[in-house]
UniProtKB/TrEMBL annotation:
Belongs to the aldehyde dehydrogenase family. It comes from the Eukaryota. This is Aldehyde dehydrogenase domain-containing protein. It comes from Euplotes crassus. One of its GO terms (cellular component) is cytoplasm. Pfam families: Aldedh. Keywords: Oxidoreductase.
Length: 210
């Protein structure tokens, strides 16, 4: 952000209508104001710090509403923000669903929300009352499609990484797999073998609970 900030903030020349000649037209980038960052539980640190850094770099103030599910990370974020940032410009708010419902009724210049589609609709609805722009990163379905030309070994390895990265707690984790009939038998065999191997490696105590 720091290395690119000057180029990002540089005014951009745009075409000028003929009847306004000899005037010049350009887009000037300015801070929006106060951003509300509503973070999800599955990436409690990165999901809060990354948009916060962007807000700071672009000259905005911010309020971070951390996830009540990741309480320890929430405490760490609050501690760091209090220690290193201006408390008049940056705040951390903790709390559950009722706190979230209340805070989205307030007026902000931007809302950044990460979470489910259902909750995203509620955020967008509340923001619409104040014409507040939103950046919504919402959940959905993420299928994997395996056709008969696929390299089965390579495909299985990639699907396992996609499914189990961050313990599977990722919005783009593979939800289900559609496999061509011609390769379904070989795929199931390869998938089962690699899955069992990976899970055994994850349980260093040799537990059979996987």
């Amino acid at each position: 952000i720091r290395s690119n900030l000057c180029s990002w903030a540089k005014p951009k020349n745009v075409p000028t209508p003929m009847f306004m000649t000899p005037a010049l037209s350009y887009v000037k980038y300015e801070p929006l104001g106060v951003a509300l960052i509503m973070n999800a539980w599955n990436y409690p640190l990165m999901g809060a710090i990354q948009p916060l850094a962007t807000a700071i770099g672009s000259g905005n103030m911010a309020i971070i509403k951390t996830s009540e599910v990741a309480k320890s990370c929430s405490k760490v974020i609050e501690k760091l923000v209090k220690k290193y940032l201006d408390q008049k410009a940056y705040k951390v708010i903790e709390g559950g669903v009722e706190v979230s419902k209340e805070i989205i009724t307030k007026t902000f210049d931007l809302i950044v929300f990460t979470g489910s589609s259902e909750k995203g609709k509620l955020v967008a609805k509340a923001a619409a009352k104040n014409l507040t722009p939103c950046i919504l990163e919402l959940g959905g379905k993420c299928p994997a499609i395996v056709d008969k030309s696929a390299n089965i070994g390579n495909t299985v390895a990639k699907i396992l990484v996609a499914r189990f990265s961050n313990s599977g707690q990722t919005c783009v984790a593979t939800d289900y797999i559609l496999v061509h009939d011609d390769v379904s038998s070989g795929f199931r065999k390869e998938f089962t073998e690699k899955l069992v191997k990976e899970l055994k490696n994850s349980f260093q105590d040799k537990s059979e609970n996987y």
